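Retro notes (design track)

What went well: tokenization of the new backbones is finally stable.
What didn't: we kept losing track of which sequence belonged to which structure.
Fix going forward: every design gets posted as structure first, then sequence, in one message. First example under the new rule, 359 residues:
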């Protein structure tokens, strides 16, 4: 297959982990006879520095001309004092909104080899296999009015019925091909948007009789994610709750550096990026865990290109390399040597190259 991929490395550890994911994509292309054309673009702080805009038109055009987008991370202390519309994070919000990427899929699966790296007890973490379905283009992030003066600030939490319907449908569809359970997370004891959200879920469930539905308030959900994370299958929630719960859930896997994500719409086009940020505390050291970026590339193959075999090969290689004891610093066991980003990526490439291609 021939595909064009826009690559937006971004800031901090973004370029370090993106370069690892690109190496993996190139190897997959060679091994499975695909042609991936890569077109590089600027986003976030790097784009502000070069072009004065965190999501420049050139970047939008490159993405528009591509089948999917691979993104690293944006942000960093250098731009933290920037005016509200000109922060690196605005670039990320703009690209999501511009392409209508309303569904953010954040899978959280326990990695057997890393159970020791999780702060949770092994018996709590071992069976975890959940998917957070985060609404990505609405809610507090985008609601109007949004402004501030010296004395006050306003953000608006608003959702239309239509915005809720499409993300809830996505969650039900995913649950159908997983373990058949949806947990809808809201704050319906306080928020009007949550009461509408709950109403839509109740209406929708009739169309999916094979899926079990439960409602859970976000505060107790945060607690249950730690006390009984294996009880969850698909978790569907609004933008801000999903942002917070997904970082929380990442600890189950041992590190934020393990968590990939897909931001998609209904036609197959998607943006793939790690859940983590630009890691200012480790940027430039060459020690970031590239697994989240590499697994995001695997999600791209699966969700945008329909390349299930290739995606599974990458996921298996990640498991195998970890099982063989090769770790980056964030998940390394005490007293063992941690590999650099590049060394760990080399292990993945060797592993992928040694596996037989089955079709
Ligand atoms: P962060 O995710 O960058 O880092 C949190 C902690 O996790 C840090 O200690 C970091 O070293 C560690 N970490 C993150 N990714 C890692 C990896 N791959 N390997 C090893 N360790 C890793 O979050 P933060 O520090 O709160 O935010 C830093 C900047 O990133 C901010 O400017 C924020 O806005 C931005 N951010 C961007 C994205 C994105 O681009 N998608 C996501 C979150 C935060
Ligand atoms: C994420 C990040 C972003 C978000 C920020 C950087 C805008 O935290 O992708 O999880 O809040 O969506
Ligand atoms: Mn986040």
């Amino acid at each position: 297959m021939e595909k064009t991929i826009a690559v937006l490395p971004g800031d901090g550890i973004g370029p370090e982990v993106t370069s690892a994911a690109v190496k993996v994509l190139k190897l997959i292309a060679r091994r499975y006879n695909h042609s991936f054309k890569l077109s590089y673009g600027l986003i976030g702080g790097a784009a502000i520095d070069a072009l004065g805009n965190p999501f420049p038109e050139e970047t939008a055009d490159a993405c528009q001309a591509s089948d999917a987008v691979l993104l690293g991370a944006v942000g960093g202390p250098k731009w933290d004092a920037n005016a509200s519309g000109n922060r690196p994070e605005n670039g990320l919000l703009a690209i999501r909104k511009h392409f209508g990427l309303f569904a953010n899929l954040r899978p959280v699966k326990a990695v057997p080899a890393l159970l020791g790296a999780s702060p949770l007890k092994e018996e709590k973490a071992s069976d975890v296999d959940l998917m957070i379905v985060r609404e990505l283009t609405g809610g507090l992030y985008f609601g109007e009015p949004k402004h501030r003066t010296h004395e006050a600030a306003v953000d608006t939490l608003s959702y239309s019925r239509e915005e809720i319907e499409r993300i809830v449908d996505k969650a039900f569809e995913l649950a159908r091909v997983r373990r058949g359970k949806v947990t809808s997370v809201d704050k319906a004891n306080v928020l009007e948007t949550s009461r509408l959200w709950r109403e839509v879920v109740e209406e929708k469930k009739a169309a999916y009789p094979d899926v079990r539905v439960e409602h859970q308030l976000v505060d107790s959900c945060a607690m249950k994610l730690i006390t009984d994370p294996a009880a969850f299958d698909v978790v569907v929630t609004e933008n801000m709750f999903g942002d917070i719960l997904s970082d929380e859930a990442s600890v189950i896997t041992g590190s934020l550096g393990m968590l990939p994500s897909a931001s998609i719409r209904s036609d197959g086009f998607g943006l793939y990026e790690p859940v983590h940020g630009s890691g200012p505390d480790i940027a430039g050291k060459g020690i970031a865990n590239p697994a989240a970026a590499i697994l995001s590339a695997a999600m791209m193959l699966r969700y945008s290109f329909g390349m299930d075999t290739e995606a599974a090969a990458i996921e298996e290689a990640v498991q195998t390399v970890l099982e063989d004891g090769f770790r980056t610093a964030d998940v390394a066991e005490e007293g063992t040597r941690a590999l650099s980003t590049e060394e760990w990526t080399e292990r993945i490439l060797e592993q992928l190259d040694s596996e037989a291609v089955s079709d």
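Added context from the reviewer: The mean pLDDT is 96.
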